[in-house]
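Next up, sample data:
>
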Amino acid sequence: MDFNFYNPTRIAFGRNAIEQLDSLVPKDARVLVLLGGASAEKNGTLKKVRAALGSRDVQEFRGIEANPTFETLMEAVTQVRDSRRDFLLAVGGGSVIDGTKFVAAAVNYKGDPWQILETHGAQITTALPFGSVLTLPATGSEMNSGAVITRKETQSKLDFRSELTFPRFSVLDPTTTLSLPPRQVANGIADAFTHVVEQYLTYPAAGAAQDRFSEGLLQELIEIGAKKDLELDDYDVRANLMWIATLALNGLIGVGVPQDWSTHMIGHELTALYGIDHARTLAVLLPANLQVRREAKKEKLLQYADRVWGITMGNESERIDKVIQRTRAFFLNLEIPTRLVDYGLGEEAIEAVIEKLSAHGMTQLGEHQDVTLDVSRQILKAAL
């Protein structure tokens, strides 16, 4: 398929990469550092950031949630406007970076900033420059232009993207991840894995390089996920996970091939309604999605079974059964439950999600635009 690929984000990767902030951030910048909880301070990352920024005029904004909310981010927008900040620096995981993208776009937006989400970024005409210091490998937000924001008031979770909301740079120092708890590492692996699958497991489009890139990333994530002691201070494992999570959603593997994203869109509604970790909604929905849509995805499912999992024995139906089972087992090995009932949800949750999908216009999802509300309902029922 024809494509146009653009990604301007500079990556500074490795030990002591945070020191490069001094050359990456303009000397005269009036910086706002955006943060989530206290982890960046506790693990010493924030101290390194402050040191690297030196004598620059720096303020901080704290409290961006794991699912960044419009309400909190508008407080940051107010701070930027009132204190005349002209450069933003996200220090945290994908949620903080997503939130920073929204702040960058909203500061000078003409009109109601919620329109940025309602139009999925189509109306963004300007954005403040920003960079990031990544502390949690998962979303790939450090090297793409997209973000997902939640509005608590309406329990809406919407995405946007714009060429104006790529980070100018992202600092990836794997040592910042060594203190992460196993749950967050597991979530990051599951998130990156599903990002790759959403771009890979559709239908054949002669994207040979994209397929091989994707299969290699999936195989390495499977190897990393098989390591039981995810809290161990293994720099090489964390470095590979950090770079793989970036490559999973920086646009490279998705160019020239069809993409799905129905698992994500349905998952966003589960998170907005019930507060389930984003990665955990994916682990619930992906195996169910593959099961319900196995015929439409047949060719790629068989390729996935062969090339990624080495499943070659049995007839086509048996191989597809096996690879869906292996995918579910991959999440379970990460100690991530894969059923809605594991989160205390039943039939009533299905209709609540369908109602939200309808309200947000998510009625023709997937690579063929054939994931209707009825198909989404089937997926949710299969996920019970």
About this structure: The first strand starts at residue 10 and ends at 13. The chain has two domains: 10-176, 180-382. DSSP finds 15 helices and eight strands in the chain.
